[in-house]
Amino acid sequence: MTTRAFGTRAADAHFEPMDIARRAPGPRDVQIDIAYCGVCHSDLHTARSEWGGTQYPCVPGHEIVGHVSAVGAEVTRFKVGDTVGVGCLVDSCRTCPSCGEGLEQYCEGGFVGTYNGPTHDAPGHTLGGYAQGIVVDEHFVLKINHPQDQLAAVAPLLCAGITTYSPLRHWKVGPGSKVGIVGIGGLGHMGVKIAHALGAHVVAFTTSESKRKDALALGADEVVVSREASEMRAHTNSFDFILDTVAASHSLDAFTGLLKREGTLVLVGVPEHPHPSPSVGNLIFKRRSIAGSLIGGLAETQEMLDFCAEHGVVADIEMIRAQEIDAAYDRMVKSDVKYRFVIDCATMAA
After folding, report:
1. Cα–Cα distance for residue pair 167/101, rounded to 1 Å
2. Best label site of 36, 116, 203, 292, fewest CB within 10 Å?
């Protein structure tokens, strides 16, 4: 079967409409009519081959929300008409220890990404959610319980939501925790919302005074302008946990110094150039940690979606037509979005 998509044929080419092949649903497959797809900065990095290794044609998109249009004979969890989501993974080995523990994102054989991953389907690599339809193994499909009028704003939860929820849960953030969120962008704004919903005391860090009001509106209890030394000093040795969502190279010492004894700084942003080497003394003398975290497994992603539905958490979005993807990418580079673009996939038919 074919479906209309928007993709690019080279790193320096514009996005264009194209008809792409999708496999017919197998016994355990779910066929999905895509309603909305979020636009992640990873999409831009891949489409423009900024990380290298991009295979073309490239159809990005791993924040997918839609409705089931067909199911294979052995599918048990979904039926036609269900509202569902697909995130960053569409396959993994399912036999390694990580997969066995529901941590498919750390599959020792390497998970298959929703786009630019290896597959037997034509053209030999996965094509993502900037499309009107997709076929995915039911294990990698998620139930969406939010109201239908929130579905566009649910799409970014499939990447930005789980990327921030997973470390917050792993490090047991909740009532009584003082939590910092560094960066108020696509990831950071979700970090603020989810940490607030978990009951933590949330401090948002931004380099821009102009974002102070916005961060408070998102649910932050306090806002610190990180360029102001006096504001930073006021929080020395006080944080249980800091989530750093910034994808640009920067000094980590300013934040490790704010952690309590045994506090943790977790990195989820991947900078183009490595961060400067952090001070070891900041870590040794208070048994602090710097750690990293990558999205979440399928069970945890479902837990996140259910939690967000229960607490009314969605992303702040700007809806775009498929024909506006190039312009949206240019604006993302300038951080000119509050806080996530979402494609209305119905516009691909135009």
Report:
1. 16
2. 292
Give the domain range for residue 85. Answer: 2-159+316-349
The answer on 154 and 11 residing in a single domain is: yes
Q: Is residue 23, in this structure, part of any structural domain at all? A: yes
Q: Which residues, other chains included, contact 322 with Cβ-Cβ below 8 Å and sequence gap of 6+?
A: 6, 15, 17, 130, 343, 344, 345, 347, 348, 350
- Specify the CATH number for the domain of residue 136: 3.90.180.10
User: Are 175 and 276 members of one domain?
Assistant: yes
pLDDT for residue 152 is more than 90: yes
DSSP codes joined into one string, 52-121: S---SSB-----EEEEEEEE-TT--S--TT-EEEE-SEEE--S-SHHHHTT-GGG-TT-PEESSS-B-SS
- Name, in order, each residue with C-beta under 8 angstroms of 298's C-beta and a sequence gap of 6 or more: 89, 102, 104, 139, 140, 142
Mean pLDDT over 110-131 rounds to 96
Note whether 14 and 150 are same-domain residues.
yes
Q: Could you tell me if residue 59 is left (phi over 0), alpha (psi between -120 and 50 degrees) or otherwise beta?
A: beta
Category of 13 on φ-ψ map: left (φ > 0), alpha (ψ -120 to 50) or beta:
beta
Q: What is the average pLDDT across 98-112?
A: 97
Beta bridge partners of 131: 5
Q: What is the pTM of this model?
A: 0.96
Q: Give backbone dihedrals phi and psi of 70, rounded to 5 degrees, phi first.
A: -165, 155
118 and 232 part of one domain: no
CA distance 60 to 69: 22
